[in-house]
Amino acid sequence: MTIRAWTVLGVLWLVSLAAVGSITYAQSPQPAPAPPTMITGPDLGFVVEHQKGGIAFGQLMVRVDGQWRRAAGSARRGYVVPLAE
Question: Which residues pair with residue 38 across a beta bridge?
Fold first, then answer.
């Protein structure tokens, strides 16, 4: 075989390796995302969606008629009232 034939054969072999690799990667099972962690009390909870630098970010939840619902509200400056001691 000539040098040109070996080169063509080598290129075809590399292309076939890339094609097989991309097909097998696309068919491999992807890990399922972990369900969010919920920290709950009797009627108030917090869903941790992600953490960054030791700080939990998420959504406040309240129980209404036995079902958990997302709480909507505002924590603007001056509206936070400390709990009575």
Answer: 47
